[in-house]
Amino acid sequence: MNPTAKTWDPERITVQRRQTLGGASSDGPAETVHCPARERTLSLDECLECHASDGFVDENGSRFVRCRRLALAGQLQPRRHGRLAEAAASQVFEVMSADVTCAREDLSAEELAKLLLERGYQGVPVVDGEGHPTGVVSLADLVASVDANKPGAREVLRDRDGALADRNVGELMTPGAVVVSESASVFEAARLMAHRLIHRLPVVNGENQVVGVITSIDVLRWLASQAKTEP
Q1: Model pLDDT for residues 46-94, shown as the tens digit of each residue
Q2: Contact 3, 99 (CB under 8 A)
Q3: Strand 123-127 to strand 174-175: parallel, antiparallel, or no bridges (unpaired)?
Q4: Among 53, 192, 195, 219, fewest CB within 10 Å belongs to which?
Q5: How far from each other are the two terminal CA atoms of the chain, in whole angstroms?
Q6: What is the pLDDT of residues 143-201, one digit of tens each?
Q7: Buried-state track 164-184, b at ≥16 Cβ within 10 A, e below 16
Q8: If you ran DSSP here, which 8-state letter would residue 94 be given?
Q9: Cβ neighbour number for residue 7 with a 10 Å cutoff
Q10: Is the dihedral of CA 88, 94, 97, 98 positive or negative?
Q11: Got the DSSP string for 172-227?
Q12: Count of CB atoms situated within 10 Å of the CB of 150
């Protein structure tokens, strides 16, 4: 869900965007930031009102807030040595995809199939009206409801021929999503995925609202970027 590798910049805060699709209507993007200085999630407006904010920039489709406080902290913070030390100290919000699409339980299975096929997603978090996770729904869930015995997941969905009519996400999803906190370490996210045999985790803030997604590919890209900078 995060096709472009990124390098976390300690002087900039990534703006997190949650788009939620529902049956009767869809919610506009909820924009928040994780403030390392305050160690909690803020609305974008609250962040921009902070005296340390130096405005925001748009870059390659992503939005960032410049933070003078973090720039100073980065100059004073000692360098962490070694990839294991980095994994133990670096937090999920540095690595996750901050643009996340979610589904509500009343979204039709047909609309979900279109979303997964058009965007190449393997699955999306399912949330309630407040953005709290209630489960996950995947490409495999849709395929199983159409024809579990036919190979080629995306081909099955392209040839679904009305098989998903009158069904919704709530009927197909796996309830009780395994989630990780945005302030958890990258090591903890990797451990959760390995132990649960899953490849993606919804990321939640202190209010248990989905603010991003981290995948096994995100972690591998991050490790690769650390290897390039290793002395």
Answers
A1: 888 888 888 878 887 778 888 877 655 544 344 455 555 555 678 898 8
A2: no
A3: unpaired
A4: 195
A5: 31
A6: 887 765 555 556 666 666 666 778 899 999 999 889 999 999 998 999 999 999 999 99
A7: beebbbbebbeeebebbbbbb
A8: G
A9: 10
A10: positive
A11: HSEES---EETTSBHHHHHHHHHHHT-SEEEEE-TTS-EEEEEEHHHHHHHHHHHH
A12: 11
Centre a 10 Å sphere on the Cβ of residue 46 and count the other Cβ atoms it contains: 14
pLDDT in tens, 5-22: 444 455 778 888 888 988
Name residue, tokens 């900078």: 229
- Amino acid in position 222: W
* Pairing between β-strand 99-103 and β-strand 12-21 as defined by DSSP bridges: parallel
How distant is the alpha carbon of residue 67 from its chain centre? 22
Q: Which amino acid is at 224?
A: A
